[in-house]
Amino acid sequence: KQEVTQIPAALSVPEGENLVLNCSFTDSAIYNLQWFRQDPGKGLTSLLLIQSSQREQTSGRLNASLDKSSGRSTLYIAASQPGDSATYLCAVPSTNKLIFGTGTLLAVQP
Amino acid sequence: NAGVTQTPKFQVLKTGQSMTLQCAQDMNHEYMSWYRQDPGMGLRLIHYSVGAGITDQGEVPNGYNVSRSTTEDFPLRLLSAAPSQTSVYFCASSWDRRETQYFGPGTRLLVL
Questions:
Q1: Of A92, B66, B71, B93, whose CB count within 10 A is highest?
Q2: What pLDDT, on the 0 to 100 scale, is given for residue A96?
Q3: Which residues on chain A are in Cβ contact (under 8 Å) with B100?
Q4: Distance from the first to the final alpha carbon of chain A
Q5: B39 cis-preceded (ω within 30 degrees of 0)
């Protein structure tokens, strides 16, 4: 059974820092991995989708990497801003649903 | 494109009442799904649909009904509301269940 975990559960950094969020999955036979952000009281916004054949995917200040063999993905955020404060979730598709990670609550202090 | 829209944004129900949560998308996506999000439980799949006329159960379907008469709409019906159904409900759509999922803004439901 696929399990997805994220560490740390919470992270607080000063503005301008580069940071890394981690996502681990137990079954390496994934089709792809998706990163989302969720602002308080809002829905999920898709940030990046990285295919199983890819090693990296970039969008602006965000860079997602994938290492299937080790069951890990990282989301790198460069030059963090207060507007990046949100909960970040990773997810992998299963038979009929997405399996979500436990989430990382990020606070970027001005 | 409006993307995925959900109505209402917030609803209060009394135990035993029924209601329909609306979900619509304008991206011509075949796959649509409903999740509920609860503290400490994460997101759990309620029902999903792979196209008009085709629906199936997720991991927590009890107490909920769905139908998919058009590609655009995927309403979720609460048959007889219970306090345990107090939650935030999200609708999502995509070209395929494995591809980028687009989520709606959610409906906050409180059952008294």
A1: B93
A2: 80
A3: 34, 46, 49
A4: 41
A5: no
**With a CB-CB cutoff of 8 Å, which residues 31-70 of chain A face chain B?**
31-32, 34, 36, 41-46, 49
**C-alpha radius of gyration, chain A, whole number:** 13
Helix, strand, coil percentages (3-state) for chain A, rounded to 5, are: 5, 60, 40
Answer for the pair B90, B103: CB distance below 8 angstroms, yes or no.
Answer: yes
Instruction: State the best of A38, A59, A98, A102 to mutate against chain B, taking most chain B CBs within 10 Å.
Output: A98
- Which pLDDT band, with edges at 50, 70 and 90, does B69 fall under? very high
pLDDT digits (tens, 9 = 90+) for A74-90: 999 999 999 999 999 99
User: Is A82 strand, coil or helix?
Assistant: helix
Place of tokens 């598709």: A93
Residue type, B2: A
Vertex B29: Cα angle to B26 and B32 (nearest 5)? 105
DSSP state of A3: -
Q: Assign 3-class secondary structure to chain B.
A: CCCEEEECCEEEECCCCCEEEEEEECCCCCEEEEEEEECCCEEEEEEEEEECCEEEECCCCCCEEECCCCCCECCEEECCCCHHHCEEEEEEEECCCCCCCEECCCEEEEEC
